[in-house]
Amino acid sequence: MRRRIRTAYGSALALTLALGAAACGGGPVSTAGGGDGKELAGQTLTVAGVWSGAEQKNFQKVLDAFTEKTGAKTRFVSTGDNVSTVVGSKIEGGNAPDVVMVPQVGVLQQFAQRKWLQPLSEKTRQAVDADYAPVWKSYGSVDGTLYGLYFKAAHKSTVWYSPEAFEQAGVRPPATYAEMLTAGRTVSDSGLPAFAVAGEDGWTLTDWFENVYLSQAGPQKYDQLAQHRIKWTDPSVVEALRTLGALFSDKKLLAGGQKGALATDFPGSVEKVFGPEPEAGMVYEGDFVAGMAKDEFGKKIGEEAKFFPFPPVGKGAAPVVSGGDAAVVLKDGKNQKAAMAFLEFLATPEAAAVWAAEGGFLSPNKALDLGAYSDATLRSTAKSLIDAGDTVRFDMSDQAPAAFGGTKGAGEWKLLQDFLRDPSDPARTAAALEAAAAKAYQTANQG
What we know:
The chain is α+β, with helices and mostly antiparallel strands. Helices cover 48% and strands 13% of the residues. It has 2 domains: 220 residues, D-Maltodextrin-Binding Protein, domain 2 (3-Layer(aba) Sandwich), CATH 3.40.190; 152 residues, Periplasmic binding protein-like II (D-Maltodextrin-Binding Protein, domain 2). The radius of gyration is 21 Å and the shape is globular.
């Protein structure tokens, strides 16, 4: 997200600002149940999230649809990447938002452990049971209680490429990880570096690792590592780092080499492939690449910007890594009724369809008609996410305590940047990751 899904585009451009939405007239009956559709009139719902730029603009349309439906005014506050710190300071200052769009499972769990959250309503729970794969309920729950509704998801197992670059090199979308590296070297030989890697943003490197690890080590090991039930010094981690290091150490594969990758942020990596002066043929990241290629560089998705699924590594299965933003209700918010009604609204395909029509969005809600998405590529990625069901695995770094998996210049982000700079010793990197993880989990458990 975040960060990331997601959140990724928004986190890369995050600005701290607060926008107000003007109240609209009463509309149909509120999703809160009963009444004349105006029972929330006079209330102002404050929603905090990481989004800015195009993502914030599109989410505002969802807020406006809620206003039209219920009469409640809305106000969005952008937190930037440090959601936990910003929300904590607002709670301490007596100015807590009513709803927070949380981009990390670890942060949601942290909020619940601190007793900041309200359990979701029965109506929302019923919608989740009916219309979401069980994995999404699991990621939104703490100790069996549902606190988070996943409204926006990301398919983070997509590799985006320039069809022109592939045509020039005479290569096709690869079916395996080894084929992807071979195709990349062929693209490089044709005159254009293979991959634009956004090494300046450490979260993109965690996504690279997670796809390799899920495919190579398998979902059981992935779950164990995500929960720190095995150590980062496990041989499976070292092997995944070795696999990733083969890419990071190959100057034919990285636009600008390791130094260039470390100086490239996420928006810059997309620009290197789809901008006016291409510097690479491929960029790995989630489906949200499409929104940026379209909005920022005017590319026709499916024609001038295409993707292939992140290919399987060795004998493993193709990975499906996801991320997402979960809506939670804060106990200290001043408008509990409006907050609960808003989450009931977000649980409907009606709410998801508002953003789906704008692009840069996927919903884990199975009840959303795929025809709501604005183009065939989005429909394809959305179907892949839904069809994966419980084989989807949530972004591992987002499940970790923020000190390890979600802090710029620290923990996993920094250590994988160090590994990109020098990938010669995977075992040493694994040991450093374990030391940082052990410290972060110990602190989180004490808290």
